[in-house]
């Protein structure tokens, strides 16, 4: 059983991205699954290509992409990605698409095929606040999840795939205004390991 | 150097109170100071009496009271307590005072004499989000800080005293609505240890 | 030019629903368009049927459905509806579907074909805070927008359709906890009239 | 019966201040009271002097100061002012005091003597969300309330005085990030008129 887990490069002026900080700290083997880690550029299309290329090479059973959702308080399990790029800030190569479809021959939206409700329940069971999210936004996170599920539907039909948004780390909110939530890196890592475990159990059955 | 650190009993239907959970986990010696831990009943007046009695017995150099401020995202260093009890929920013995002065012969308010700005800065220096708060509310937390500073002004003039509000723990927000912030127990403990250290440094100079 | 504007029945224990309160107060003629008002039951499927039946009868050029999004601060212009019903609370007839597709033969999602960006810009031009929303949730609001666009794609190809979420009214937050945003009924009505105007301009060109 | 009602100049880069926008629109006579309007500079000490000078001239029975509290959702009735200036941003003349007492011979804090609980109740009775606030901050709003009550205690013992914080206007949040609450100018004016009425009733009895 191979599990590909990705995190993003920092973006929007941040020095770190909690998603890849957590992915880096994952054990190399979880619940019998081999963990393959990948950092994804925060760039439209290049992100999808980086992921697809690794999927071709590794043929993973499960793909879990992770991204930062600054301002959210809980581990946020994405349900769906929509066929639109609409950026309010530029990506890491300066692209700022507005209201553009991602793939002209794609569906309007794709649903993650991870067991999202079980993941929520099992995270809460180990004391981690979690929620189902119905929007991954319209920036590179939604873009990547859309690309992942587009290629799963075409070329990797047996693969489970989905996207997890994680809160800011505590140190990221120090210089920001407002009552912004955060989550410790330890708890984000613990959450990802549980998500991998739940996904492996689902994949086996 | 003796440092008395207090936390509260759970209240308002909660099963745990992050303040005493964190206080329990403090080392018994921090930066050369002997740490004395005390759980305080979440009850008007009984809280102050429990604290005053321990202060008489131990004659601490520093008193740091800790309480839960559900909904706050940062370690919250209280600046001031006001001479009013005004409860929206009953305390743990069913008392629910409305707009009552705490001590008729007390000042309208007392300021904490901890180095609150230094504490904020040093917490941020170790990656913990912190803020100065100008209100500890009008429930038992404000009540206890008021009582602490009232007695410091009268009977313990050399003692440093103050109040720290801490966020919910992650597990406390699981069943609550909304995008509620939380902080891991590890980070709350780390924060309290830093606060004790900064206060000891201040006390020595 | 006919414009059908719908609001919902109160739900979730509320006594009023700001959406239909505002729809009731719309002028019967706006920018040359005849305004047809309709109250929709907050019930899965019956909501869509009520709307479809009225659309068959009136053959409107534009359909704007309005719903309450308690907790949002701005007029929220929905971009997309997804093919899922997933209720956390029962609808007004006690149904509480979980993770069920709305129409088995429908797309994964439909996009509103209202000029959502122009609407946002023109609302802001008259001093009303507005935002594009990428999720109408998974309750009856998303359900109705999904049904609307499903039937527009099949049977009413020239019709413009979309969904507007409005904040709580000020009186609705009085007995609720927290720093909840609201919007005055006057401003919600003013916003809907501007949205109708912008949509009519789009429909003509 | 004379009622002096003050609002502030815009500050912090804002073009308007909802407090004086609302004060300007008050009727000149409310519930038998003559309404005197005054704009206060958002400047430490000059604000208090402007107010005190007008109080000497007019000898009002009631003084209600109004200020903007960006981010609050409700009409916020201040309970208390504390003897500290601690500015995070400069005032309108560039002063930025840190941890300075306002008056060396003043109390640690003064309580408003308006009927704050009745005001809350009567505002809610007319559909306006209201709350008691236990902190007016440490900027010019707290400074002015402190100065008002300091002089009431010394020189205007029969005068009722207090401070009301009002939310942003809807147009002020358009270009700001986040789910910021606001209140319509009409509702702020309606709230102030009710507050004046409740205060006059209290003053008579």
UniProtKB/TrEMBL annotation, chains A, B, C, D:
GO terms for cellular component: cytosol
E.C. designation(s): 3.4.19.3
InterPro entries: Peptidase_C15, Peptidase_C15-like, Peptidase_C15-like_sf, PGP-I_bact-type, PGPEP1_Cys_AS, PGPEP1_Glu_AS
Residues annotated as catalytic: 78, 141, 165
GO process annotations (BP): proteolysis
Pfam family, one: Peptidase_C15
Enzyme class: hydrolase
Subcellular localization: Cytoplasm
NCBIfam families: PRK13197.1 (NF009676), pyro_pdase (TIGR00504)
Family: Belongs to the peptidase C15 family.
Name used for this protein in its record: Pyrrolidone-carboxylate peptidase
Organism: Marinitoga piezophila (strain DSM 14283 / JCM 11233 / KA3)
